[in-house]
Amino acid sequence: MKEILKELCFFGSLDDNQLDELAKISTIKKLKPGNILFYEGDAPKNLYFLIEGLIKLYKYNSNNQISILNYYHTPSIIGESATLQKTPHQTNAECDTNATILVVSFEKFEEKFLKDPQVALGIIMQLVSKIKKLMNVNLQSTSTQKIAQLIYENSELFTKLKKYKIAEILNMTPETLSRILKKMQRDGIIKYTTTSIEILDKEALGELFLGCSLENNSLVY
Q1: Is-contact 55 99, C-beta < 8 A?
Q2: What confidence tens digit (pLDDT) does each residue in 60-95 have?
Q3: What range defines the domain where residue 158 resides?
Q4: pLDDT band with cut points at 50, 70 and 90 for residue 5
């Protein structure tokens, strides 16, 4: 458990003793496709961290049809806005694949950690980093950037999900996805088949969405 916690940037400000205490109030859940993490209107009780898998957030529109708002893939914190503000969840969160979730009791987390100003500030900075990343994703205008970033951060999704699902996550057509993957393969950046993907040139892949050398950048999750 402690090793998993160390990998989460959200807890980057915690020392070893604090991580030991955090492990005591954390559990790991294994969920299947269709399992619900939380429903719209639920009172938030936990912090949820997606360790492995794919989670979709959605609402029902006036015609009782599902409107997908976002997909989360590893590593991600999910629904933290409602939890930190202690307001009902505004969306439904459902597993789209088999998923591994780290669940932290928020009541105990607040009592043991958020009352420490240094810890609270560290967590706030991690949330700010997440917001910046989301803003950068939304500002990205090309399909190539979106595909390159997903491969760089979570290439295993390309071996677990069908092409149409990847295209849906990235909000593009399957034809556009296929065209760009083929070009990346021709350029020697990746090796891709319908069942596997291999990164051949990680720096070149990163430059496609960062726009500069990876040596001068770090990815914030």
Answers
A1: yes
A2: 888 888 888 888 887 788 998 899 889 999 999 999
A3: 141-215
A4: confident
Work out whether the CA dihedral 175, 178, 183, 189 comes out positive or negative.
positive
The Cα 218–Cα 216 span in angstroms is 7
CA distances from 56 to 36, 70, 216 (A): 10, 6, 32
Residues in the chain: 221
pLDDT tens digits, 193-213? 888 899 999 999 988 877 533
Closest CA to 143 of 183, 105, 107: 183
DSSP string, 49-88: EEEESEEEEEEE-TTS-EEEEEEEESSEEESHHHHHHT--
Positive or negative, the CA dihedral 16, 84, 90, 46 is positive
**Residue 220 placed within a domain:** no
pLDDT at 221 over 60: no
The CATH number that applies at residue 23 is 2.60.120.10
CATH number for position 173: 1.10.10.10
pLDDT(112) > 60:
yes
Which pair of structure tokens corresponds to residue 151? 């491969």
Query: In total, how many domains does the chain have?
Result: 2
Distance of CA 75 to the CA centre of its chain: 4
Peptide bond preceding 75 in cis form (omega within 30 of 0): yes
Q: Computed over its alpha carbons, how large is the radius of gyration of the chain? A: 18
Q: Say if CB 101 and CB 54 are below 8 A apart.
A: no
Q: Within a 10 A sphere around the Cβ of 149, how many other Cβ atoms?
A: 21
